[in-house]
Amino acid sequence: MKMFVGLGNPGPKYAGNRHNIGFMALDRIAQDHGFAPWRGKFQGALTEGRLGREKVLLLKPETFMNLSGQSVGEAMRFYKLTPDDIIVFHDELDLAPGKCRVKTGGGHAGHNGLRSLHAHIGAEYMRVRMGIGHPGNKNAVSSYVLRDFAKADADWLEDVLSGCSDGAGDLADGDSGRFMNAIGRRVNPPRSSTSEPKPKADRAPADKSAPREPTKDTRSPLQKLMDKFS
Questions:
Q1: What per-residue string of b and e applies to 179-200 under the rule 16 or more CB within 10 Å gives b?
Q2: Residue tagged active-site, from 19, 108, 118, 120
Q3: Residue 113's closest CA among 152, 158, 64?
Q4: Which of 71, 24, 70 is CA-nearest to residue 44?
């Protein structure tokens, strides 16, 4: 059994925040794959269903971001899971909007939700790092992540969430490569094979300096004689 964890802050005030992209990913997976209704458990919102061959739990901690590890640790102990069974979806400042990467282990890079998870379950869990871009000034980070996505972000955000849902079964089965391919097909769809080919380049003009073949004289003998004395 796997447990997907989405990081965010609870309540409608934060629902559209950049910091809540992890919640958004889990909501889309639950909706698209027919998971059971969400219920309150382990200081969070929990649902369960199947993805591919795996039974999967989806957990959104409602302890606020900085205490996310409390909820995840409680659920892990109840279901006797290990960090290898945990996959965390979270916002990533160091990736451009629309970019995603899968990583296991490593530091928390100052992310308060990951910092809490490290403290409660260790660092050796898998993360789906969902790029939101950086404001360019570290002093602006807090206000940036706690603001809603802009209208201009709607298209790429929809593509990323749909891609996460498309590839969720592969991720649960341990195939992170196919999961990333599913996101890529949404974010960078292949060109249609019916698109018109590019026009061929015009042929180079004939070389006027090249010698020409002599024109064949088709006159009759009588016409040649008349032309000679004309």
A1: bbebbeebbeeeeeeeeeeeee
A2: 19
A3: 64
A4: 71
Q: Which of 177, 164, 131, 187 is nearest to 26 (CA)?
A: 164
**What does the mean pLDDT of the chain come to?**
89
Q: Is residue 115 predicted with pLDDT exceeding 80?
A: yes
In this predicted structure, the answer to whether residue 200 has a pLDDT above a threshold of 60 is no
Q: Is 4's pLDDT higher than 80? A: yes
Q: Are strands 100-104 and 126-131 parallel, antiparallel or unpaired?
A: antiparallel
Provide the pLDDT confidence category of residue 201 given band limits of 50, 70 and 90: very low
β-partners of residue 59 are 5, 46
Query: Are 135 and 6 spatial neighbours (Cβ–Cβ below 8 Å)?
Result: no
pLDDT of residue 203: 47
Name residue, tokens 């969720």: 168
Q: What sign for the dihedral angle of Cα 216, 222, 224, 227? A: negative
First vs last Cα of the chain: how many Å apart? 108
Say how far apart CA 70 and CA 119 lie, in whole Å: 9
- What phi, psi does 55 have (nearest 5°)? -80, 135
**Residue 33 a catalytic site member:** no
Instruction: Specify whether the CB–CB gap between 55 and 48 falls below 8 A.
Output: yes
How far apart (Å, rounded) are the C-alpha atoms in residues 124 and 118? 8
